[in-house]
Amino acid sequence: MVAVTVIVGGAETREGLAEVDFDAFVAAHWQRLTRTAYLLTGDHHEAEDLVQVTLAKVYPHWARIRRLDAPNAYLHRAMVNNGFSRQRRRRARQLLMPWVPERAQPSAMAQVEQRSALLRALDELPPRQRAVVVLRYWEDLSERQVADVLGCTTGNVKSQASRGLAKLRNHQALAGYAASGSMEEQ
Amino acid sequence: MTIHQDEDMVRRALADEALGYRPPHWAGPAAAIHERGARRRRVRRAFAAAVAVAAVGVALAVTSGGAQAGRVVAASAVSQASSTSARPSASASVAAVPWPAVRVVPADRDLDFGHQIWMRLTAAEACEALGPYATRAYSCNTITDGNQPQGSVSAREAADSSGTLYAPLYLGPGDAARMTVAVHGRTYRATVVTLAGHPGYATGFLWLPTGPQPPEHGSEIQITVYDAQGMVLAEAEVPGM
Known about the structure:
heterodimer, A: mainly alpha, 10 helices, B: alpha+beta, 10-stranded mixed beta sheet, 4-stranded antiparallel beta sheet, about 30% helix, globular
């Protein structure tokens, strides 16, 4: 009986420590993760919800995940995969619904107006290409790390990044950056 | 333009966009994440326990040669797991549906919550509207004028031909994490909406589609606000529309 009590107490303490550790880890990475989710989803509500759902999924397994070499990479992978799943579900819902979701025209127009040009440019990329661009050029992950997160080869990351860059290069959203780059060269 | 210049251009554009967005402070959604995570852990443990019980049952059935007994134990274990996982907290009548995540929102922005539900929150007032974007008219409640006492919840309602919006407003020192609205004898979970960086009030929304005429005795609306631990912060019973 005594042994059982000690083990249970130990487990509770371990959980308590893991919780403190989880809070500290997330507090340090929260802003970065949420901004990454924002670039991936293009919507700040969606981004905050995506990060919250991902962290809630990670939290029960934190005692194991914290011992990994790169818990951050695990978190990225979980978040990106969650994002893909949500996108697929949303698309399926739209396909399965017997009517087109009613949306007031001015509302949609206003929302489009409010969205930044860059987010609109990112919207034009396929989901995996967008993830590669965001992870590679915002998170500054290496090709190897991006490949690990997306579960693909580095060759695939290279080609997706190259295609993504080609699409963004001539997009008007980046025209200002191209012009300032040319100015700096002169 | 070289590939490196392209990469640099995209890096700068992404950084400008990402840094222009200011996420809410981690302390805001922390309670909701812990609550969601703890619920997942409880479900996982209940499932593991059910699997263990089922395995023992099957083993017993095999050793005793009684396949019938094994099926009964396994079935009871599965039903035990589903009932355990479906009852994470306080209110039994709403236990079957997961609690919606708390939405931490930026100040002074038009927020679209679907069903043509709009909200706009500031440190001084909480506004909600129901209707198309072009014709929406916000109805605002002041947070700071003292009309609503601290530690209380009030009910705001708006309706159109398709349904009714219930938007409770809680004022007080507690951190509201859950809200329930009991209408016509049934209890529903509302989505809590709080303003980033301004604790001291929380609002929420619940959309119910128009149904058959409610019974006469069911016109009262009961609103309850809980914190993340399930403690009641405030409750109110108000006549419905």
